[in-house]
């Protein structure tokens, strides 16, 4: 098994996970049962952002990169891959908190809408 490919695969999994956390609520609008998968992922993403933790996938990726003879990096996945594209100055704690709050508020609105829609259906049925 090529350690560099494993590390690259982890980057893809990590990226898809982040997109799912951020935008999965939109999928839940279409497929409500997906909420059982999205909500735990969303809570994890919010905890990572608001708690200032590094996702466990990051050290795992770094370990595979080192096994491949590639260089390591410090910080988290978002700091290394995403933030340079969005915020060239780098990830600050304030931006990280804003990202967590954006996840919380944006998805809270989506799930609030779903609950409201579901409750209205329940009231209409005899």
Q: Which band does the percent of strand residues land in?
A: under 5%
- The arrangement of helices and strands along the chain is HHHHH
Helical fraction equals over 70%
Q: What summary fits the major beta sheet?
A: none
Low-confidence stretches: none
Keywords: Membrane, Transmembrane, Transmembrane helix
InterPro entries: DUF2784
Transmembrane segments: 6-29, 41-60, 95-115
Protein name: DUF2784 domain-containing protein
Structural descriptors:
single chain, 126 residues, mainly alpha, 0% strand, DUF2784 domain-containing protein, membrane, transmembrane helix, transmembrane
SSE arrangement:
Blueprint: H1 3-30, H2 35-51, H3 57-67, H4 77-86, H5 93-124
Helix pairs in contact: 1-2, 1-3, 1-5, 2-5
Short note summarizing the structure:
Keywords: Membrane, Transmembrane, Transmembrane helix. By secondary structure, the chain is an all-alpha fold. Helix content is 78%, strand content 0%.
């Amino acid at each position: 098994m090529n350690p560099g490919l494993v590390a690259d695969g982890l980057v893809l999994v990590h990226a898809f996970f982040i997109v799912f956390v951020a935008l999965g609520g939109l999928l839940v609008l279409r497929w409500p049962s997906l909420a059982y998968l999205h909500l735990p992922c969303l809570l994890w993403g919010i905890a990572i952002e608001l708690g200032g933790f590094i996702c466990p996938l990051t050290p795992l990726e770094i370990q595979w990169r080192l096994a491949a003879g590639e260089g390591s990096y410090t910080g988290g996945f978002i700091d290394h891959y995403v933030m340079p594209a969005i915020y060239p100055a780098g990830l600050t704690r304030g931006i990280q908190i804003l990202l967590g709050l954006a996840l919380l508020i944006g998805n809270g609105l989506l799930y609030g809408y779903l609950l409201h829609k579901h409750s209205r259906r329940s009231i209409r049925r005899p």
